[in-house]
Amino acid sequence: MYEHLAAPGRIGALTIRNRVVMTAASASLSQPDGTMTEDMLAYYEARAKGGVGLIITEMVCVDEDRGVLFPRELNAAREENIPSFRLLADRVHPYGTKIFAQLFHPGANADPQLNQEVISASAAKGKKQGGAREITGEEIRDIVQKFGQAARRVKEAGFDGVEIHAAHHYLLHSFLSPVTNRRTDEYGGSLENRTRILREIVEAIRATCGRDFPLMFRVSIEEYIGVNGYHADTGVKICQMLESWGVDAINASASGTSSKLSQSMEPMHYRQGWRKHLAKAVKGAVSIPVLAVAMIREPAFGERLLAEGVLDFVGSVRCHLADPQWADKAFRGREEDILPCIACMACLGKYYDEGHITCAVNPETGYEAQLPPLQEDGDSRLVVVLGGGPGGMEAAWTAARRGFRVILFEKSDALGGQLKLAGKPPRKERIGDLLQSLLRRCTQAGVEVRLNCAPTLEALKALQPYAILDATGGTPAIPASIQGTDSPMVCTAPEIISGRITPVEESIVVVGSGMTGLETAEILSQREKDNAVLVLEAAHRLSPGVLGSNRNAMTAVLEPNNVVFLCNRTLTRIGADRIWFRDSQTGEEYVYPCDRVVLALGTRPADPYGESLNQACDKVLPIGDRIYGGQIWDAIHTAYRAALML
């Protein structure tokens, strides 16, 4: 069915069993010294077992003094770490999967708290804080040798090759870009000089590892940062130079700095395959294999790109975070069973909360070694799930897999809950993929669904359930501190997003700049509606708590629509035709005439049963918004863990 996707491929002298590649993403599952943990080993083993042909690890440190990005990242800068890397190679090889280490240096992106100092091609502003100084020529040559020695160590550990990260504005990319390279020595100026460090790294790795050890470079083909950056013509030229120096493959990527259009890991607003043209341009100019990620989500789309000659290997990481068995299911004709990546960016957005990589749609990702095998010990005991949103459906199908008899009650005429609303804003169609997947899983697991039904306490008592999973969700939060919320001009974000209210030619204030507030502002600011939209945010910056890539994707649309953003502004009172808000820094109060106020201030638990559910069952577990107003990640993860606790 997928003759191209399933066909073996070659990188240098290495044969790879298929064209599916799990690309790099920082998992932060290692020990503080950069050695393996069982968490890291189990995480990669699950993807190898799931059928991928090649795994490219997370970024691997080569310079402990000035090259650490995260507190827990793999480290090939130490000789004593070779046995640890051998553990990983030995875990994935039995499944026929090959593995490359992605060697990198963060440059100006390095965390100053984890490094002696921060360096870049030229003096630059540090990404985290402070600044980066210009690296000296002697230090460049030292780092080149560190790449060579790191490659030797992973080769000795049994790895099948290495990828050098020369993209995404890390150290090597800072040499390539004329925006960040202002040097006047042999490493600056002409393209030949700016790429000199890459050529020297190739030579260093060939000296330590030999010509037959596969070597791939990840390159930003286009920076997407305007006229001062380089573009695809230069990106392609860099790839041709790499081929001439003996590099075996190119991983064609994109992006450079923090430009709103410079996305190396795109949110769901980007269409599938949006930058395939970059891979195609490279493939048309070199004879070595080309790997690329391009928001490839569906096996059929990857097959088409291979058949059309756009690329040689289909790269993705998030597909394999969402479903480690993505490749195996595709090759077995079970595409409909693939858990879909919806590009919600929770894998990054929840990073600091959880301390490592996770996934919104797959609650097992990042916890593979911690979670026990799913026990099938339900013995047909009855579990009642109240609410058919994402949390309710996840809990229902997980409990059913454990052997419980599950009845899922939903008060409306269809399952989906907040997913139905979340999928309505522009460019969020992928939310529907998750809904369809959950519906399919519930059906396959034998969940009994009762729609248009909110059971009474007496009805629940009559069922005599073993457990009740309360996924009754939340309602829009309306703070009591704001006077006048009962004004006729006040509505909530769900009323706008659902289309129940469709203002035209109005002056509108959206209160709250989270993703819901921004999506509401986009709907209201569509040109044909001719509304004037102002977004108020009480925090000192826009969209606190929203991942930068998601925020940038939204503001890139809102700003051309003349949406105005005011931060440090707290709404205090609403009148019949105006609002009052206070500048939180100066304390000064302002009056703003308007036609409508839309509250987008999150949710609070709906709690339709109060404490009475305990009268129907001793085991009552809340899920998702029933606990606190959260996101899809929170609903899925709390539901899964509740089902494990039964």
Uncertain ranges:
none
Rounded mean pLDDT is: 95
Sketch the major β-sheet.
8 strands, parallel, barrel
Into which percent range does the helicity of residues fall?
25-40%
Major β-sheet strand ordering: 3-4-5-9-10-11-12-13
Features:
single chain, 646 residues, alpha/beta, eight-stranded parallel β-barrel, five-stranded parallel sheet, 21 helices, 28 strands, 18% strand
Give the topology, please.
Elements lengths: L8 E3 L2 E3 L3 E3 L15 H12 L4 E8 L20 H11 L5 E7 L14 E2 L3 E2 L5 E4 L2 H20 L4 E6 L4 H6 L14 H4 L1 H14 L5 E6 L11 H13 L4 E5 L22 H8 L6 E3 L6 H9 L5 E4 L1 H5 L3 H6 L14 H4 L1 H4 L27 E5 L3 H12 L3 E5 L8 H5 L7 H16 L2 E3 L6 H7 L3 E4 L3 E3 L13 E3 H5 L9 E5 L3 H10 L7 E5 L11 H11 L5 E3 L2 E6 L3 E6 L5 E5 L2 E4 L3 E3 L14 E3 L9 H13 L2
Parallel strand pairs: 3-4, 3-13, 4-5, 5-9, 6-8, 9-10, 10-11, 11-12, 12-13, 14-15, 14-17, 15-16, 17-28, 19-26, 20-21, 20-26, 21-22
Antiparallel strand pairs: 1-2, 7-8, 18-27, 23-24, 24-25
